[in-house]
Amino acid sequence: MVVFSSLTSVESIKSVCVFSVRGSDGTSLLRGPPECEQHAAFTRDPRLSRCVTFSRDGTFFGWCNGHSVSVVRSSDGSIVSTFDLPKTALLEFSPLNKILITWQPYNKSQDSSHSDANLQLWELQSGQLIKALYQKKVDSWCPRWSEDEKLSVRSVNNELHFYENNDFNTIANKLHMQKVSNFALSPGGQPSKVAVYVPGSKGAPSFVRLYQYPVFGGSSAALANKSFFKADKVTMQWNKKASAVLVMASTEVDKTGASYYGEQTLHYLAVNGETALVQLPKNGPIYDVVWSPNSSEFCVVYGFMPAKATIFNLKCDPVFDFGTGPRNAAYYSPQGHILVLAGFGNLRGQMEVWDVKKYKQVAKPQAPDATHFSWSPDGEYVVTATCSPRLRVSNGYKIWHYTGSVVHKWEMPSGSELWEVLWQPFPDSCFPERPVKYQATPSDLGTTQALPTQVYRPPALRHLPATASSKLHEEEPPQNMRPGVLWEKSLSKSALKNQRKREAKKAAKQSDCSDPQSLLHPPPTSGDPETDKKIKNLKKKLKAIEELREQQVSGKVLQKNQRESTSLLVIHNF
């Protein structure tokens, strides 16, 4: 496991950051980038670690090595607390670092009628046990806190239990519905809001509702409500300002057979009561949905490959279309000024780095076989890693400047595995936004820009000259790079309206004047409007068939109904 951490000074982080690496050879902390070296105050733990984590502000670092759970200060490596919990599988800190939460797999022996509580809440500084609870499922294992720790909530037997001021001996409030299977607490402080999901049953639709604590009773208690069908599970994401939540509903199986990944739909709910279904122009799976840190936009990666990526505003209207490409993930920088569209997993690891204020592409590096991506807290660097068990060969990590330069890389020795890499987080106010650079940062390791690749051509077409019609996929360029299209972001609504009127008028005039002979000798008419209409439609169909015929001659493979149409043209000509 690699954990990345940084010093509190903005100037010092330019040369010194800390990150953590967890693997088969132990857990270590490194300082960097751009130069990366062992953290002098932290001795590498050679034992196999089950898990590692940082506190939300990066002050503390905790890990379990199979013998105990240890918590140290990230700055100097000094021990804060040690817990005799060898079976711990998951760790988490409360927002203000008052409580350490540990979870181990639930285990009930056959010769015993009960099991020990497997979810434990510890006071971090004193090491005293606050509360021991039962949590069988790993899903939503950790209680959720408001940022000020005045409210916490956990799911228990299809209802939500709320606790106030870290008093876990008293349930302050409950939210009980038919069958709450998922929830998401809003970020920030008071008033806290919660989104709850109830799956449909017996023909009734599933629904998501937003509530503001502690108003849960009554028909008008919900801030917003959105119901939908085709949902086996949902993921819910609040924006940073807690003003809206995105709900991606998905089914395990696509009954139409169009997609191996099932069906997905994206819904929008706002605390002011507005709801909407986000309309996506291309059919296919939804791979990723991510909010911009400014909370006013979100990016969606969707559609059959090559996938589209589009930024939407809070009215669910498209703001910018990035076209199509081999991508399945999106990552905003912590400051929100840079967006990376990437294709990992079964794709080649191509990354597109965009300046989202100017919608200008910065770089296009490539990280083959990457299984992990994350931003540094200062928004200057990213890390990509190939981790086990997703891939058990060629494990290692690279640290990049966002302009595409590799500033550091590490390959695991033969026989060793890399399990996790992690940056040390920092509060949002620590690192202000910096101007975007377009020139690659100098590096001894160079860059790995994606090389242009030849389009795959089936064997039946390889003896023919390459033509645009022989492409397997027609790639769509970004919105501001399409020929003949003027990008409209900088225009006001009235100017945009007038411009569209002028373009339409100009196009109509050009179409009228394109054929001077048609003005001097208009086509003959039969005198019967119905007959003229039929003749016009017939000519249109013959023209379309003629175009198909030309495509067939150029080598394009036509579908069955298209071949039948061209056969009709041959008969017509005969």
From TrEMBL:
Gene Ontology BP annotations: regulation of translation
Pfam family, one: eIF2A
GO MF term set: mRNA binding; ribosome binding; translation initiation factor activity; tRNA binding
InterPro entries named in the record: TIF2A (IPR011387), TIF_beta_prop-like (IPR013979), WD40/YVTN_repeat-like_dom_sf (IPR015943)
Cellular compartments per GO CC: cytosolic small ribosomal subunit
Disordered: annotated span: 468-534, 553-574
Keyword RNA-binding recorded: no
Compositionally biased intervals (Basic residues): 498-508
UniProt xrefs under SUPFAM superfamilies: DPP6 N-terminal domain-like
PANTHER family per UniProt: EUKARYOTIC TRANSLATION INITIATION FACTOR 2A (PTHR13227:SF0)
Protein's job: Functions in the early steps of protein synthesis of a small number of specific mRNAs. Acts by directing the binding of methionyl-tRNAi to 40S ribosomal subunits. In contrast to the eIF-2 complex, it binds methionyl-tRNAi to 40S subunits in a codon-dependent manner, whereas the eIF-2 complex binds methionyl-tRNAi to 40S subunits in a GTP-dependent manner.
UniProt-recorded name of the protein: Eukaryotic translation initiation factor 2A
Originating species: Echeneis naucrates
Phylogenetic lineage: Eukaryota, Metazoa, Chordata, Craniata, Vertebrata
